[in-house]
Amino acid sequence: MKRLLIVVDMQNDFIDGSLGTSEAKEIVPRVIEKIKAYKEQGDDVVFTMDTHFDDYLETLEGKNLPVVHCVRGTKGWELQEEIGAFSGERFEKVTFGCLKCANFAAGQGYDSVELAGLCTDICVISNALLVKAAMPYTPVLVDASCCAGVTPESHRNALEAMKMCQIQIV
User: Fold this and answer.
1) How far is the C-alpha of 77 from the C-alpha of 88, rounded, in Å?
2) How far apart are CA 111 and CA 122, in angstroms?
């Protein structure tokens, strides 16, 4: 069975930087263990990275979320140190979902795709839905214990929304 783990936006700015939360900090050890488990089984692991530039506040997203974050080349943009030490393709994305990552997954013949990371209610749900659309006959899973939302309530709401779209919450 060929499996893929997509680690979504486990970047410093979302953990302990400009948009960090205590819930995001709490999931880091669990995400590291999940990556190790996938690697030990010989499965693939890839990473998405929210990527913005100096003009972020002038973009549509920046006007709606006026908090500078994940500016390419800054410490906040980098993956959390232990997570960043793992090998695996990095997909930079300028918006919530990553079509390139979903298309990559669809083209590799995976038997299942699992997602973990940040933020459940924005980028995890966006990427899970893109993968589900690209791979409608493949199980898509999200590990709730390896995700955190902007708030605990929005995390729970996103998990419920994904369940309704036949994404398995584990």
Assistant:
1) 17
2) 25
